[in-house]
Write a structure and sequence with these properties.
Blueprint (H helix, E strand, L loop, with lengths): L6 H14 L4 H8 L3 H9 L5 E2 L4 E2 L1
Antiparallel strand pairs: 1-2
């Protein structure tokens, strides 16, 4: 699986995956061999932070 390059599409894609398939961002990253810090940094640059309580980027 490859990730969208556009940060807004990436945000939407990851939140959909978290809602439908994964109980945490960490699980999503480990299951797909993604670099969690790289993704978080890209989303943080456009104003999104991961909420563990809600299991989504906000």
């Amino acid at each position: 699986m490859s990730l969208p390059e556009d940060p807004i599409i990436l945000y939407s894609f990851i939140n959909t995956q978290l809602r439908d398939k994964y109980s945490s961002f960490e699980e999503f990253c480990k299951s797909n061999s993604f670099d969690a810090e790289k993704i978080s940094s890209k989303l943080r640059a456009v104003g999104f932070e991961y909420s563990t309580e809600q299991n989504r980027f906000m």
